[in-house]
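Database export, one record per block. Field names are fixed; values are copied verbatim from the stored entry.
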Amino acid sequence: MQSIRNIAILAHVDAGKTTLSERILFTAGEIGRPGNVEEGLATMDYLPEEKARGITIEAGVAHFEWRNIWFNFIDTPGHIDFGAEVDMALSAVEGAVLVVSAANGVETQTMTAWNKLRAAGVRTLLFINKLDNKDYSLDEVLLDVEERLGVRPLLLSLPEYTKGEMSSVVDVISQTRLKHNEDGREEAVPLNSKKASSEALKYYKEAVEFASLFDDLILEQALKGENVSPKDLIRGLENLAKSDEYVLCYAGSALENFGVRSLMTGLSFFLPSPPSFHKKALGQVVRLRYFRGYGEISLFRSMCNLQSSKWPLGFSFYRMKANMLVPEEVIREGDIYAMKSEEKMELGNYLGKDGKTFTLETEEPIRNKYQPLLQTQIECLKIEDYNHIEESLQILSRMDPSFKLARHHEGGYWILHTVGEVQLDVLLARLKREFHCDVRAGEPEVQWQERLMHKVGPIENSFQVGPHKVSVSLSAEPLLDSESDIRLRADFLEEAPREILAGVRSALLETAEVGFLGKGSLVGVLFEIHSLEYTQDVNISMIKKACSDAVSMLFKKASIVLYEPYMALHLECPVEFAGVVTNDIQSRQGKIKEIAGDGKTHSLEAEVPLKEIFGYSTAVRSISKGTAIYDLHLVGFKKRTC
C-alpha cells in the first residue's frame, strides 16, 4: 500500500510560503501552471479575502504524489490573527516545512511557528527562500537560524548564479545540478565543472560528519576513510532529523522554482509515517469549512481503512483540493479527507465506526486554548434577518476556535470576540458574501474582564407567559480560587431533568459572557440557585429568560470592577536602536522588566497594556528600520487604576 505523509507549511507573512506551495504542486504535476500570490492566482488561496490581501487565511489543503508517496499538504496562514489555523493544521500532520526569507532572516512569526512545531513534536525541514536576489546572503541566514532558533543547520542544497542571476541549484545528496527544463520544472543533470563538484563534495562530507553522530555504521566508515553511500547517508540524516539540536535546510527561490525539487525529495526521505491510531476510531475532525452548495464540511483525518459500503449511514468522503471536492469510495488510515455528514461536527471530536462522536479525556477542548481579546458589537439592519444572522454567526464560530460569539438577548445584538482586526474584517466580509447577511458593526475595542467585588443577593425574579410561570432565587459571590471560571451551585437541581439544568447553566454563561459595563465578560463568579419553581411542561426558553433577568437585576455597577489585559513583550534589535525602541515602549505605558544585550543586539522584556499596542508591528518596523523582532503573549489582567 502506498505510503502517506501529512505535511504543513509555515512561515512569517511574506516569506513566500504560499508561493512555495504552488511550486510544489507544479513540480509534482498537480497543476500545469503555478499561480502567483501577487496576481491573486494562487491555487491554495481561494477565498476572495485571501486574493485581495495576498495572505493565507484558511489552511488550504491539496494532495500530490512524489517518489511513490502520497502527500497531504496543508498551506497554513502566516498572519498572527489566524494562529488557530496553524494549530489545527499541526494536529493533523507529522512533518512540516518552515520557510525563512533570505530578505529578512528569522522573523517574529518564524520563531512563533518554530516553537509551535517543537511543542507539537512535528519534524521540520527549513527552506531558505528568495535567494534569487544575489544581495541576500545564505550564510547570514544560516547563522541567524543557529542564533535565533537554537539549532545547527545542515545545508542539503545550495544555489548557483550566472552573471548575478540564479541559474541552478546543487543537490548535495545526489551530487547533481538541478536546472529548468523547457516546461520550467527542475531536472537533474551531472555536475560539469571541478569547482561545482568540489563545492558539492564539501557539503556532502559535512553531511557525513553530522550524520556520523547519529549512525554507528557511518561513523565506522568515516573513521576508516571509506566512502559513505547516499543510501547510508540518508539513513543517518533521518536519525539526525529526529534530533532537537540539528535541522536539515534547503535553499533556493520559490518564485523562480529553484530548490523545490530537492526539498520535496527531502520530504520523502526524512519525515515519519502517520502514527498508530485509536482502534475504535473512524477518524478525527481537525477543521470545519462551509462550502456553497455543500454546506458544512469537516476536514477529517481517517484512522482506519474502510470501504464505502461500511461507512456510517449518512456519511460521505471527498478529496479536497483548495475549494474543490471529489467523491471517494475508500478511506485509508492516516489520510486526510473532506467529510459530509447529516450531524453537526465539533472540532477535535473523534468519530467512531458507528458514526457516533466521542472525545478523549486526556485532550483539552480545542476552544479552551484561545483567548480572543478584541470585541466588536454588531447588530442586524432588519429585524426579520435576526434568526438568519444568528445561524450564520453560529456556523462561522464553529469553524474558527479562536473566534467566540456572545449574544445580548435584551439588546438584540451580538458581540464578536476576535484575535485581531484582520480576523474581524475577514469574518464580516464572509458574513456578507457567503451568508448574505447585512449587519452594522461598531468599532473594535479591547476586551477587558469584569469581576465581582463582593457577594450580592439573593434576589428573586418571576416570569410568566399565559398559564406558565418560572420563579428563581439567585445570589453570586467572587470565586477565591479562580479568576476566570463561571460556576454554578444548585445541588437540588441535580435531580431535575437534564434539559432544565442545561438551560439554567446556559442562561448564566451567556449573560456573564456579554457582561454588564460594556467592556468585557464577567468572570470569576460562583452563582448559587436557592430555589427554582416552574409549571409543568414549561418551555426551556422561559427558564433561561427568568435566570438571565435575575442575573441582570443582581448586578449593579458598584459591585463590579474592571481588569484590563496586559501583554508580555520580548523584543530584540540592533544596539543602535535600543534607545528609540525603549522610549517607544515606555510611551505606551509599558513597564520594562529586564534589559540585556551582547554589545551588538539589544533585548528587553516588558509588560504593556494591550490597548496601547494596536498597530505596534508597523510602528516598531518603522523606528527600527525593519530590524527588530518581537513576540507578544498575554501575561494576565490587572485592575484598572483610573
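Remark 1: The chain has a mean pLDDT of 86.
Remark 2: The first helix runs from residue 17 to 27.
End of record.
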